[in-house]
Amino acid sequence: MQAQIVHEAEIHRQHVRLRIPIAIEIDGTRYTVDDWSVGGFGVAGPMASRRSGERFPARLIFPFEDFELSLRLDCQLVYVLADESRFGGRFLSLSQGQADLFRYLVDAYLSGELVSGGDILAVVARDNSGEARVRRLFEGLGQEETRGRRVRRILGSTLLVLVGLGLAALIAAGIYERYLVVTTDRAVIEAPFYRLEATATGRVEAAGQGLLHPGDPAARVVGQGGTAVPLASPCECVIDTWLVPPGRTVQVGGLVATLVAADQPLTVRAEVPLDRARRLRVGQTAEVTVPGKAEPYRGQIERIDFRLKSDRPGEPVRLEDSSRQMVPVVIRPDRPFDFDDLGYAVSVRFF
After folding, report:
1. Phi, psi angle pair for 226, to nearest 5°
2. DSSP characters over 211-228
3. Considering the entire predicted model, what is its pTM?
4. Which residues cross the membrane (predicted)?
5. 297-349: per-residue pLDDT in tens?
6. Cα separation, 309 vs 32, whole angstroms
């Protein structure tokens, strides 16, 4: 049905008053506007969500036969009748593009040129000035309406890119750790050990304390006749453990004590499953984490011992799955460990 248009005389009014049927959406509720102008609007109906004087965003809707044109703008509620049968408001801070669009729609309505989407095309085809005006108005409106969307789209795209980069970094780190980095917690700080053997049968006595130089007596074995046989230190060593405590008897060839070399740097002996040890090489970088130390130690692999040993001398080597067969790997640190770190359990990363 053809929309009825009423043009009232402009008496004591700043803007032309129109009764072209449009709609306005306020707080999610759509109202039919029966009285409006470029300055404001009137609606026959109740208003419960707003009070007089309040400002609020609204969406003005121009319905046509086969499309709708909507315009977002800011409004202020001017009045609400006491019986809540009617309320009215005014438009705030219309931009130049919005004001031009209002005037164009009013002129097109009053002249009967604009009723459907086809009418817009007809106006454009018939009048070059109309073409420029329509294009300018709709482009200005589109720029105003899509500026916020463009900013949100850019921010959203940037966020997606950052999230994608973060996920790619996590995946790359996981692949790197899984296939290129070998780790183990089966590792200990140790030094070269020497075993002190008894060369006679008798009672063990301590003969030296602290740092022992090569040839210094580390212990003595006193025989039944009172003869003392010294047991010399083979290195710059300190006694680590008494296997036969002083005062006890030892047989010839028995182990009396173990000595730790003090003239050689401490190293790390790690045990790595055979299938992972095959990925390592001598000289490869290793990182050693010592409990209680703020920074890890860097070092290089000094030796990888792939030679399998039997549980007991003379017995054949017992073969196991490569993931369970452990291979000793010796790491020499770039900076020396503290001697107090001897015997510490550490963790090692090879990369």
Report:
1. 85, 5
2. SB-TTSEEEEEE-TTS-E
3. 0.44
4. 154-176
5. 999 999 999 988 777 766 777 777 666 789 999 999 999 998 889 889 999 99
6. 93
